[in-house]
Design a protein that fits this description.
about 300 residues, alpha/beta, 11 helices
Length: about 300
Protein backbone atom coordinates (compact mmCIF):
# COMPACT_ATOMS: atom_id res chain seq x y z
CA UNK A 1 0.00 0.00 0.00
CA UNK A 2 1.09 3.56 -0.62
CA UNK A 3 2.25 5.63 2.33
CA UNK A 4 -0.70 7.50 3.91
CA UNK A 5 -0.92 11.28 3.55
CA UNK A 6 1.35 13.39 5.71
CA UNK A 7 0.59 16.68 7.42
CA UNK A 8 0.81 19.64 5.10
CA UNK A 9 4.01 21.69 5.34
CA UNK A 10 5.92 19.24 7.53
CA UNK A 11 8.55 18.70 4.81
CA UNK A 12 9.11 22.45 4.44
CA UNK A 13 9.13 22.88 8.21
CA UNK A 14 11.95 20.33 8.34
CA UNK A 15 13.92 22.18 5.66
CA UNK A 16 13.61 25.52 7.44
CA UNK A 17 14.50 23.94 10.78
CA UNK A 18 17.56 22.31 9.20
CA UNK A 19 18.90 25.77 8.33
CA UNK A 20 19.25 26.61 12.00
CA UNK A 21 22.52 24.67 11.94
CA UNK A 22 23.94 27.09 9.36
CA UNK A 23 24.49 30.82 9.29
CA UNK A 24 22.51 33.12 6.98
CA UNK A 25 23.67 33.21 3.37
CA UNK A 26 24.65 36.54 1.79
CA UNK A 27 22.07 37.06 -0.94
CA UNK A 28 21.58 39.72 -3.60
CA UNK A 29 17.86 40.45 -4.02
CA UNK A 30 17.28 41.92 -7.48
CA UNK A 31 14.65 44.65 -7.68
CA UNK A 32 12.44 43.90 -4.62
CA UNK A 33 9.97 46.61 -5.54
CA UNK A 34 6.67 45.10 -4.52
CA UNK A 35 5.24 43.98 -1.20
CA UNK A 36 5.60 40.23 -1.80
CA UNK A 37 9.26 40.18 -2.84
CA UNK A 38 10.39 42.75 -0.27
CA UNK A 39 8.51 41.07 2.59
CA UNK A 40 9.93 37.68 1.59
CA UNK A 41 13.50 38.99 1.72
CA UNK A 42 12.91 40.60 5.12
CA UNK A 43 11.17 37.54 6.61
CA UNK A 44 13.91 35.24 5.31
CA UNK A 45 16.43 37.51 7.01
CA UNK A 46 14.45 37.45 10.25
CA UNK A 47 14.33 33.64 10.05
CA UNK A 48 18.13 33.55 9.80
CA UNK A 49 18.12 32.07 6.28
CA UNK A 50 19.73 34.89 4.30
CA UNK A 51 21.49 38.22 4.74
CA UNK A 52 19.84 40.19 1.93
CA UNK A 53 21.33 43.06 -0.02
CA UNK A 54 18.47 44.92 -1.67
CA UNK A 55 19.42 45.99 -5.20
CA UNK A 56 17.08 48.40 -6.97
CA UNK A 57 15.73 51.96 -7.03
CA UNK A 58 16.26 52.99 -3.41
CA UNK A 59 13.42 55.49 -3.27
CA UNK A 60 10.93 53.01 -4.67
CA UNK A 61 12.03 50.26 -2.27
CA UNK A 62 11.70 52.62 0.70
CA UNK A 63 8.22 53.68 -0.43
CA UNK A 64 7.08 50.06 -0.69
CA UNK A 65 8.51 49.37 2.76
CA UNK A 66 6.77 52.39 4.28
CA UNK A 67 3.46 51.71 2.55
CA UNK A 68 3.28 48.11 3.77
CA UNK A 69 5.00 48.46 7.15
CA UNK A 70 8.05 46.39 6.19
CA UNK A 71 11.07 47.11 8.37
CA UNK A 72 14.20 47.35 6.21
CA UNK A 73 16.30 49.14 8.82
CA UNK A 74 19.75 47.64 9.01
CA UNK A 75 19.61 46.05 5.55
CA UNK A 76 22.11 47.06 2.88
CA UNK A 77 20.44 48.91 0.02
CA UNK A 78 22.22 49.44 -3.32
CA UNK A 79 20.61 52.16 -5.42
CA UNK A 80 20.33 51.50 -9.16
CA UNK A 81 17.92 53.21 -11.57
CA UNK A 82 15.81 50.30 -12.87
CA UNK A 83 15.23 46.55 -12.96
CA UNK A 84 17.72 45.89 -15.76
CA UNK A 85 20.47 47.59 -13.79
CA UNK A 86 19.40 45.68 -10.67
CA UNK A 87 19.82 42.35 -12.44
CA UNK A 88 23.26 43.32 -13.75
CA UNK A 89 24.45 44.62 -10.36
CA UNK A 90 23.18 41.55 -8.50
CA UNK A 91 25.00 39.25 -10.93
CA UNK A 92 28.14 41.38 -10.61
CA UNK A 93 28.02 40.82 -6.84
CA UNK A 94 28.14 37.07 -7.46
CA UNK A 95 31.11 37.47 -9.79
CA UNK A 96 32.89 39.53 -7.14
CA UNK A 97 32.30 36.84 -4.51
CA UNK A 98 30.20 39.17 -2.34
CA UNK A 99 27.11 36.92 -2.21
CA UNK A 100 26.41 33.18 -2.35
CA UNK A 101 22.85 33.31 -3.73
CA UNK A 102 20.60 35.40 -5.97
CA UNK A 103 16.94 36.10 -5.28
CA UNK A 104 14.42 37.34 -7.83
CA UNK A 105 12.43 40.38 -6.83
CA UNK A 106 9.58 41.95 -8.82
CA UNK A 107 11.41 42.02 -12.15
CA UNK A 108 10.54 39.56 -14.92
CA UNK A 109 12.31 36.20 -14.79
CA UNK A 110 13.67 36.64 -18.34
CA UNK A 111 15.30 39.92 -17.35
CA UNK A 112 17.18 38.34 -14.45
CA UNK A 113 18.15 35.23 -16.41
CA UNK A 114 19.44 37.32 -19.31
CA UNK A 115 22.01 38.83 -16.95
CA UNK A 116 22.80 35.40 -15.48
CA UNK A 117 23.52 33.64 -18.79
CA UNK A 118 25.31 36.47 -20.56
CA UNK A 119 28.60 35.20 -22.01
CA UNK A 120 30.41 38.40 -21.05
CA UNK A 121 29.67 39.19 -17.41
CA UNK A 122 27.25 36.39 -16.59
CA UNK A 123 27.58 33.60 -14.03
CA UNK A 124 26.87 30.48 -16.06
CA UNK A 125 29.02 27.37 -15.79
CA UNK A 126 29.77 24.55 -18.22
CA UNK A 127 26.54 22.86 -17.11
CA UNK A 128 23.23 23.91 -18.62
CA UNK A 129 21.05 26.03 -16.36
CA UNK A 130 17.77 24.45 -15.25
CA UNK A 131 14.98 24.92 -12.75
CA UNK A 132 14.00 22.51 -9.98
CA UNK A 133 10.74 22.58 -8.02
CA UNK A 134 11.02 21.15 -4.52
CA UNK A 135 7.43 20.27 -3.75
CA UNK A 136 5.73 19.55 -0.45
CA UNK A 137 2.83 17.35 -1.55
CA UNK A 138 0.58 16.38 1.39
CA UNK A 139 -0.25 12.98 -0.15
CA UNK A 140 3.37 12.00 -0.90
CA UNK A 141 5.72 10.61 1.71
CA UNK A 142 8.74 12.84 1.02
CA UNK A 143 9.78 15.99 -0.85
CA UNK A 144 9.24 15.67 -4.59
CA UNK A 145 11.60 17.35 -7.05
CA UNK A 146 10.22 18.26 -10.51
CA UNK A 147 12.51 19.42 -13.30
CA UNK A 148 12.52 21.33 -15.61
CA UNK A 149 9.29 23.32 -15.47
CA UNK A 150 10.52 26.90 -15.90
CA UNK A 151 13.67 27.34 -18.00
CA UNK A 152 14.25 24.74 -20.75
CA UNK A 153 11.29 24.64 -23.12
CA UNK A 154 12.07 21.58 -25.25
CA UNK A 155 15.26 20.08 -23.84
CA UNK A 156 17.41 17.81 -25.98
CA UNK A 157 18.92 14.59 -24.70
CA UNK A 158 22.16 16.43 -23.93
CA UNK A 159 20.19 19.11 -22.08
CA UNK A 160 18.44 16.44 -20.01
CA UNK A 161 21.80 15.05 -18.90
CA UNK A 162 22.60 18.40 -17.28
CA UNK A 163 19.04 18.84 -15.97
CA UNK A 164 19.26 15.47 -14.21
CA UNK A 165 22.74 16.26 -12.85
CA UNK A 166 21.54 19.59 -11.44
CA UNK A 167 18.59 17.95 -9.70
CA UNK A 168 20.70 15.11 -8.28
CA UNK A 169 23.24 17.60 -6.93
CA UNK A 170 20.49 19.61 -5.22
CA UNK A 171 18.85 16.52 -3.75
CA UNK A 172 22.18 15.33 -2.39
CA UNK A 173 22.80 18.72 -0.79
CA UNK A 174 19.46 18.31 0.99
CA UNK A 175 20.54 14.98 2.44
CA UNK A 176 19.29 12.44 -0.12
CA UNK A 177 22.45 10.40 -0.67
CA UNK A 178 21.29 8.53 -3.78
CA UNK A 179 18.15 10.14 -5.20
CA UNK A 180 15.79 8.07 -7.30
CA UNK A 181 15.05 9.68 -10.67
CA UNK A 182 11.89 8.79 -12.58
CA UNK A 183 12.06 9.83 -16.24
CA UNK A 184 8.46 10.58 -17.14
CA UNK A 185 6.57 9.89 -20.32
CA UNK A 186 3.05 8.85 -21.30
CA UNK A 187 3.90 5.14 -21.43
CA UNK A 188 6.33 2.73 -19.78
CA UNK A 189 7.68 1.14 -22.97
CA UNK A 190 10.14 2.55 -25.47
CA UNK A 191 8.63 3.55 -28.80
CA UNK A 192 9.89 5.69 -31.67
CA UNK A 193 6.47 7.32 -31.82
CA UNK A 194 7.08 9.05 -28.48
CA UNK A 195 10.55 10.66 -28.48
CA UNK A 196 10.61 11.14 -24.70
CA UNK A 197 10.65 7.36 -24.24
CA UNK A 198 13.79 7.12 -26.36
CA UNK A 199 15.43 9.88 -24.30
CA UNK A 200 14.48 7.98 -21.14
CA UNK A 201 16.07 4.77 -22.39
CA UNK A 202 19.22 6.64 -23.42
CA UNK A 203 19.51 8.39 -20.07
CA UNK A 204 19.20 5.10 -18.20
CA UNK A 205 21.92 3.55 -20.35
CA UNK A 206 24.12 6.62 -19.80
CA UNK A 207 23.69 6.14 -16.06
CA UNK A 208 24.72 2.50 -16.42
CA UNK A 209 27.85 3.61 -18.28
CA UNK A 210 28.79 6.21 -15.67
CA UNK A 211 27.93 9.24 -17.79
CA UNK A 212 25.35 10.26 -15.19
CA UNK A 213 26.29 9.64 -11.57
CA UNK A 214 24.89 10.05 -8.08
CA UNK A 215 21.36 8.78 -8.61
CA UNK A 216 19.30 5.76 -9.62
CA UNK A 217 17.51 6.34 -12.92
CA UNK A 218 14.54 4.51 -14.42
CA UNK A 219 12.25 5.28 -17.31
CA UNK A 220 10.20 5.73 -19.20
CA UNK A 221 7.65 5.74 -16.41
CA UNK A 222 4.16 7.17 -16.30
CA UNK A 223 3.48 9.64 -13.51
CA UNK A 224 1.30 7.11 -11.72
CA UNK A 225 4.02 4.46 -11.73
CA UNK A 226 6.64 6.93 -10.56
CA UNK A 227 4.78 7.88 -7.40
CA UNK A 228 2.55 4.88 -6.67
CA UNK A 229 3.83 1.38 -5.92
CA UNK A 230 0.32 0.02 -6.40
CA UNK A 231 0.13 1.44 -9.91
CA UNK A 232 3.58 0.06 -10.75
CA UNK A 233 2.74 -3.39 -9.39
CA UNK A 234 -0.52 -3.44 -11.32
CA UNK A 235 1.46 -3.00 -14.53
CA UNK A 236 4.13 -5.51 -13.52
CA UNK A 237 6.86 -2.90 -13.24
CA UNK A 238 9.77 -4.02 -11.06
CA UNK A 239 11.96 -1.03 -10.24
CA UNK A 240 13.71 0.56 -7.25
CA UNK A 241 12.39 3.93 -8.48
CA UNK A 242 8.74 3.18 -9.19
CA UNK A 243 6.50 4.31 -6.36
CA UNK A 244 9.39 5.93 -4.48
CA UNK A 245 10.78 8.61 -6.81
CA UNK A 246 12.61 11.61 -5.39
CA UNK A 247 13.04 13.40 -8.72
CA UNK A 248 10.62 13.56 -11.65
CA UNK A 249 12.32 14.45 -14.94
CA UNK A 250 9.58 15.73 -17.24
CA UNK A 251 9.68 15.56 -21.06
CA UNK A 252 9.43 19.33 -21.57
CA UNK A 253 8.56 22.61 -19.89
CA UNK A 254 4.86 22.44 -20.73
CA UNK A 255 4.44 19.04 -19.08
CA UNK A 256 6.47 20.07 -16.04
CA UNK A 257 4.74 23.40 -15.58
CA UNK A 258 1.29 21.84 -15.79
CA UNK A 259 2.27 19.03 -13.41
CA UNK A 260 3.64 21.41 -10.79
CA UNK A 261 0.59 23.69 -11.00
CA UNK A 262 -1.83 20.77 -10.89
CA UNK A 263 -0.20 19.53 -7.69
CA UNK A 264 -0.28 23.06 -6.26
CA UNK A 265 -3.89 23.91 -7.03
CA UNK A 266 -5.56 20.48 -6.93
CA UNK A 267 -3.45 18.59 -4.38
CA UNK A 268 -2.80 21.49 -1.98
CA UNK A 269 0.97 21.25 -2.54
CA UNK A 270 3.55 23.98 -2.09
CA UNK A 271 6.28 24.48 -4.67
CA UNK A 272 9.60 26.01 -3.66
CA UNK A 273 11.98 26.53 -6.54
CA UNK A 274 15.62 27.10 -7.46
CA UNK A 275 17.53 27.66 -10.65
CA UNK A 276 20.61 25.45 -10.74
CA UNK A 277 23.67 25.28 -12.97
CA UNK A 278 24.93 28.83 -12.36
CA UNK A 279 27.75 29.75 -9.98
CA UNK A 280 25.24 30.16 -7.14
CA UNK A 281 21.65 29.03 -6.58
CA UNK A 282 19.00 31.41 -7.84
CA UNK A 283 15.81 31.75 -5.79
CA UNK A 284 13.10 32.10 -8.42
CA UNK A 285 9.77 32.84 -6.80
CA UNK A 286 6.37 33.46 -8.35
CA UNK A 287 3.86 36.19 -7.54
CA UNK A 288 1.44 33.39 -6.63
CA UNK A 289 3.80 31.88 -4.02
CA UNK A 290 2.79 32.13 -0.38
CA UNK A 291 5.28 33.20 2.27
CA UNK A 292 6.02 29.66 3.44
CA UNK A 293 6.96 28.66 -0.10
CA UNK A 294 9.23 31.70 -0.47
CA UNK A 295 10.93 30.90 2.85
CA UNK A 296 11.34 27.26 1.79
CA UNK A 297 13.04 28.41 -1.43
CA UNK A 298 15.43 30.52 0.64
CA UNK A 299 16.05 27.58 2.98
CA UNK A 300 16.91 25.26 0.12
CA UNK A 301 19.28 27.84 -1.36
CA UNK A 302 20.92 28.38 2.04
CA UNK A 303 21.48 24.67 2.62
CA UNK A 304 22.86 24.18 -0.89
CA UNK A 305 25.23 27.17 -0.57
CA UNK A 306 26.62 25.92 2.73
CA UNK A 307 26.97 22.30 1.61
CA UNK A 308 28.71 23.37 -1.60
CA UNK A 309 30.87 25.82 0.38
CA UNK A 310 29.79 28.84 -1.66
CA UNK A 311 29.39 31.16 1.33
CA UNK A 312 32.17 33.81 1.40
Amino acid sequence: MDTPPTRRHEKYDALIAHCRGFGPVPTAVAHPCDEASLAAAVEAAQAGLITPTLVGPAGRIRRVAAEHGIDIAGLTLIDVPHSHAAAERAVAMVRAGEVAALMKGSLHTDELMEAVVRKDGGIRTERRISHVFIMDVPTYHKPLFITDAAVNIQPTLDDKVDIVANAIELAQALGIATPKVAILSAVETVTSRIPSTIDAAALCKMAERGQITGGILDGPLGFDNAISREAAEAKGIVSPVAGDADILLVPDLEAGNMLAKELTFLADADAAGLVMGARVPIILTSRADNMRTRLASCAVAAIYSHVRKLVP
